[in-house]
């Protein structure tokens, strides 16, 4: 099962020429899960991987840079004749906010459900859960942890044959938990293996809840709005420095740290270098970059730089171009 995260917007608070407002798309199999939807998100997706039939939207908090792109996206889905239901999850106040904006995005031909999950409440999906993590920001704010269900242990086919089990249907019976030719499944199937885990901090000061949720995660996506030179401003505004995010990642023993929500005062390299001095497995994705997360036995999480070009703008008919 493929698992990756695509970064549609990596700026913090204010967009720049190179970075859009916060939006990350988790892709797991056919599921498309959008975390935050800053202004311009649908345009960012259209310019890159396309505006897919998103299955769920999770808002980390209700500051406008994290949700202002949502009303337009909801309307676009309606104009594209979407019929698949969509669930929007967010902290307390999300329902009142979006219902208050109904006159803007109007009715839809598909069902929109707004859910305000309790902190740490797991939301079950096919093969994984997503839980809201309370974080330290201005007002109520969440991070999110996607945790896959445990996987069956590795099947030792060579050992099964040596014990007298012939290849073919008998192997399948063993993997289903049946005893075959006196061979118990526990003899040839290893211990259960954990699924993969992605944790996204949202906007936050470094906090214990994120550290606990991110323990041995395959990927931690943590905000790093400032460098340590602006540590006072980070504290006053409820944000983190790159060094603080790196220290948390190191202590949580994550496999890879991705820094996002960058202030426009930085190009990115300064934040990456500060983080790597503490936690070498740190990256600063650009817009349209992705991180692929294979199963541990197949390799480590890896940043994949965007190499595609935006699709050309549609041609304007000659008559439409005339004044």
End-to-end gap: 53 Å
CATH superfamily: Ribonuclease Z/Hydroxyacylglutathione hydrolase-like
* Number of self-contained structural domains: 1
Beta-strand segment tally: 15
Main beta sheet strand tally, sense and closure: 8 strands, mixed
Please report the first level of CATH classification, the CATH class: Alpha Beta
Query: What overall geometry do the principal axes of the alpha carbons give?
Result: globular
Average pLDDT works out at: 92
Quote the CATH topology.
Metallo-beta-lactamase, Chain A
Q: If helices are DSSP runs of H or I spanning 4 or more residues, what is the number of helices? A: 12
Estimated share of beta-strand residues: 15-25%
Helix content percent band? 10-25%
Order of helices and strands: EEEHEHEHHEEEEHHHEHEHHEHEEEH
Low-confidence stretches: 311-323
Radius of gyration: 22 Å
CATH architecture: 4-Layer Sandwich
Order of strands in the sheet with most strands: 6-5-4-3-2-1-14-15
């Amino acid at each position: 099962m493929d698992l990756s995260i695509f970064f549609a917007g990596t700026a913090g608070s204010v967009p720049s020429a190179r970075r859009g407002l916060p939006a990350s798309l988790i892709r797991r199999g056919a599921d498309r899960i959008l975390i935050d939807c800053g202004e311009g998100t649908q345009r960012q997706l259209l310019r890159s991987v396309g505006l897919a039939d998103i299955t769920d939207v999770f808002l980390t908090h209700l500051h406008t840079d994290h949700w202002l792109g949502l009303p337009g996206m909801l309307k676009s889905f309606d104009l594209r004749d979407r019929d698949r239901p969509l669930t929007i999850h967010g902290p307390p106040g999300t329902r009142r906010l979006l219902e208050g904006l109904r006159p803007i995005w109007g009715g839809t031909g598909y069902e929109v459900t707004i859910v305000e999950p309790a902190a740490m409440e797991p939301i079950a999906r096919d093969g994984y859960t997503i839980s809201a993590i309370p974080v330290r920001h201005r007002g109520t704010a969440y991070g999110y942890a996607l945790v896959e269900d445990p996987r069956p242990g590795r099947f030792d086919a060579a050992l099964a044959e040596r014990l007298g089990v012939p290849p073919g249907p008998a192997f399948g019976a063993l993997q289903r938990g049946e005893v075959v030719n006196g061979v118990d499944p526990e003899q040839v199937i290893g211990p259960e293996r954990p699924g993969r885990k992605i944790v996204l901090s949202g906007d936050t000061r470094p906090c214990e809840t994120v550290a606990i949720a991110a323990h041995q995660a395959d990927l931690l996506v943590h905000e790093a709005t400032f460098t340590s030179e602006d540590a006072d401003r980070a504290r006053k505004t409820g944000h983190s420095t790159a060094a603080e995010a790196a220290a948390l990642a190191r202590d949580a023993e994550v496999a890879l740290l991705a820094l996002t929500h960058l202030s426009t005062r930085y190009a990115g390299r300064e934040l990456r270098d500060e983080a790597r001095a503490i936690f070498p497995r740190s990256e600063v994705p650009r817009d349209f970059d992705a991180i692929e997360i294979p199963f541990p036995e197949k390799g480590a999480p890896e940043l994949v730089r965007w190499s595609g070009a935006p699709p050309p703008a549609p041609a304007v008919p000659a008559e439409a171009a005339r004044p």
